Amino acid sequence: MRKWTIAIFFFLASAGLKAQDVGLSFSYFIPKNGDFSVPVTPFSIRGLGFDLNRFLAIESGFTLYRISGMGVKDLPYESKKPIIGPFFSLLVPAELVLTLSFGDQAIKLKGGGFAFYNFGTQINEGNMDRELRQYLNWEVLNSDMKVTNNPGFGYHFGGEYLIYFSKKFGISFEAYYLAGASPLDLKGSYRGVATDGAAITAGEVDFPDAQLDFSGYELSIGVLFAPK
After folding, report:
1. Number of domains in the chain
2. CATH number reported for the structural domain that contains residue 6 in this entry
3. Residue 191 forms part of a structural domain
4. Per-residue pLDDT tens for 91-135?
5. Residue 190 and residue 6: Cα distance in Å, rounded?
6. Which of 21, 55, 87, 154 is at 20 to 30 A from 106, Cα to Cα?
């Protein structure tokens, strides 16, 4: 119930805004130390908001991603593999937009923050085992780890290039850098054989500072509908 409450809140927070140029887009996310991820079509809507003046506006929207794999930071060792995933992630940005128009074209410079929440989070057990085996210096290791979903937050900046074919229709190309995180409460147990041993040994690990590293690049292409 808590998961759906958060999801509905994010949706209503976006849908309740007055739309100036509403965009339906395909957004692709390339996470740091992660795998290429795609949107769950057609759940990517951007451009909901309102104008402050001729040049400035506040915009929001939402994208539902299927994240193939994402990295983890703030571990006691340096992790370079995607150890969380696959999962679904609902991302909602809130950004200040500066628009520079040139006839039937425009450039938008954007920056702000975003919130996200994950659903159906899984651990990539293969990568998790390999990283723990290297960290503990064991010969063989199998782990049973668990994480807790928590809301995440971050900041982003980037730009958008628009071409209008009429007063009510256009296409857009967007590129952003995102830097966010959410607590994972990563912990669990493992069994295996140490490098200098022969017997099977069990142990437990707890990484309370571990965070999902929701950082990377977002690329989008979409269509715009301007209610003018």
Report:
1. 1
2. 2.40.160.20
3. no
4. 999 999 999 999 899 999 999 999 999 999 999 999 999 999 999
5. 33
6. 154
Handedness of CA 191, 118, 85, 121 (dihedral sign): positive
- Does the residue 12 lie in any domain? yes
Position 31 in a domain = yes
The Cα–Cα gap between 42 and 223 comes to 12
- Report if residue 132 sits inside a domain: no
Give the single-character DSSP code of 70. Answer: B
Domain range for 56 is 2-124+149-185+211-225
Give me the phi and psi of 71, to 5 degrees please.
Answer: -85, 170
What single-letter amino acid sits at 137? Answer: N
95, 110 in Cβ contact below 8 A? yes
Print the SS3 string covering 102-137: ECCEEEEEEEEEEEEEEECCCECHHHHHHHHHHHHC
What pTM value is reported for the model?
A: 0.84
